[in-house]
Amino acid sequence: MRRNRKDAWNRRLIAENYLSVNDLIWPVFVHDKDVAREPVPSLPGVDRLSIDALLSDAGEAKNAGIPLIAIFPVINADLKSPRGEEALNPENLICRAVAAVKAAYPDLGVMTDVALDPFTDHGHDGLVKNGYVVNDETLEVLSKQAVIQAEAGSDVLAPSDMMDGRVGAIRNALDSAGLSDLRILAYAAKYASALYGPFRDAVGSASSLGTADKKTYQMDPANSDEALREVALDISEGADMVMVKPGIFYLDILWRIKEAFSVPTFAYQVSGEYAMVKAAGEKGWLDPEAAMSEALLSLKRAGADAILSYSALDIARKLSECSPKDST
Length: 328
Ligand code: PBG
Description:
Layout: H1 8-14, E1 24-31, E2 37-39, E3 47-49, H2 51-64, E4 68-74, H3 93-104, E5 109-114, E6 128-129, E7 132-133, H4 135-152, E8 156-159, H5 166-176, E9 183-190, H6 197-203, H7 205-209, H8 225-237, E10 241-245, H9 251-261, E11 265-268, H10 271-282, H11 288-301, E12 306-308, H12 312-321
Parallel strand pairs: 1-3, 1-4, 1-12, 4-5, 5-8, 8-9, 9-10, 10-11, 11-12
Antiparallel strand pairs: 2-3, 6-7
Bound molecules: ligand PBG.
């Protein structure tokens, strides 16, 4: 076995998987403050951006060859409410950000989350009644939110809320609005994970959520068969692509889904996964760049067609410095 590992050129010849810029989706945060860039302490290297700064970074992403960016809004606290009405304001921050990016870079794909958590004062993804996140009433709001984001120019709508029937409801609403070309990327197997902490810091939902959790709608990390049922439902309801989230702790789920359905299957290297690598790197305990690339390559090996990662721009730049095969 070692003869084929002896030289770098030989290793390149037999590499079965590699990362390419075509695999990368870059999540970014936009805020409404005068500050161009506000660092997120729990996500080293990630800033909350003003729309101007977002435009500059979106340009960098496009130049680096990244096909799609995912924009998440940081909504001012005074605009948050129990029912998250700001989500349905066509002039809200996310709609303005999407419109600005699409005007500047029509060829760069833009994706947006369909969920209420950035907009609710309780931090949940849906409407709450008697302490419970209600399903069908939430679907009505999500459907409207999806149409508003689509009208602002979003190319890919990504329901991340884990309500039952959301993909079908959103697909119907889009069709009725004459928006049947819109793509839906379903956060199909989304687990109630401890790894979303830094994201919730970034969008400010951590303080709203307090000690509450999302276990009545996000999946139980103990389950695997259930993920296949979630994906089957989302595909039958009209999803174009499905996602597994988090990534590295759920490689088995990714593998099973890709094997079972052969549909475009994405993985989200979530905030906590990124932060762990960065933090260990800051302590000098490992090489963070090598660990990050290895993590993304593992997601590819497990079957991911594309990966959301906060390191996407760094990785894309690194890939452009060498041929794709060198990177392995
Ligand atoms: C919101 C949403 C979350 C993430 C993406 N969309 C957080 C949550 O469900 O609480 C997490 C992403 C990350 O941790 O990087 N629905």
